[in-house]
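JOB MANIFEST
job_type = single_chain_structure
chain_count = 1
residues = 307
[input]
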Amino acid sequence: MNTNPQTQIETPVSIHPATQMGLVHLTVADLDRQVEFYRQVTGLQLHWREGSSAGLGAGEKDLLRLTEAREARRYRHTTGIYHFALLVPDRRELARAIGRMFELGYPNYPTDHILTKSTYLDDPEGNNIEIYTESPEDGAFGIVDGSFFAQRADGTPSNGREALDVEALFRELSTEDQLDQPAPPDTKIGHVHLYVADLEASLHFYHEVLGFDNMGLSRSFRAGFVSAGGYHHHIGFNTWVGEGASPPPPIALGLRYFTVVLPDKTELDRVLQRVQQAGMLTGQTEQGILVRDPSQNGVMLTSRAND
């Protein structure tokens, strides 16, 4: 069956299909506590630490960057990150991740999205994390004709948010599997999901300016999804904290920026040209070009040469 039922709407010049998500950068209030959480609970490794910042990942590229601001606090009902998602390569690694959290007694919420298998958890400062793996053989989900759609492989409908059969998942593990092993090296940022102020403005930015393909927008579900290369979604956005939500103050816990990685400088320049033609302000940094979406969420544009 079709595992991705959305009607993909391409821009006149779509973003390169090999575009992927890069690291997520968060402001935190307690760097020591956050580093320990991500190491112990999610299995990420500490790659480096300098002053008030640290980088973590699965042994290769940074997936998460944390910068401490002791005075920062959490603001509710603002735009920002809903969750960032760590994609693990298979069900066995998801079973290991969930088993580790069960063994630690750390609250998490295993969920079956049919097309993917996931668990959700919050870090100690309230940042929501999804850890997931792909399961297209089990069915499909997406947005069709403005409505959310989920269907199992046998054709029966689903709400797309079922309780995950954890016992079945744990059968992927053997007695030799150790739960405290770090995240596998091919772990990556699969997608980010954002709180935004306006669905149409967000879709215009991510679809028509950056060039991501429109994978569906639902006004009843109050969410939209875009991707590169036909993936179900690299970026999700919703108005679940309210239409017209304000961005948080500059000193706030949570998202500084997430990274979009183009395959090379030529493709990066093509995206930047569209950003400039749209009259949007950009900032040059060591990490890449920073632009803000209409809800003031930070998007770092870079290429693999700088990744």
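[summary]
The domain at 20-303 is CATH 3.10.180.10 (2,3-Dihydroxybiphenyl 1,2-Dioxygenase; domain 1).
The chain is about 15% helix and 35% strand.
exit_status = 0
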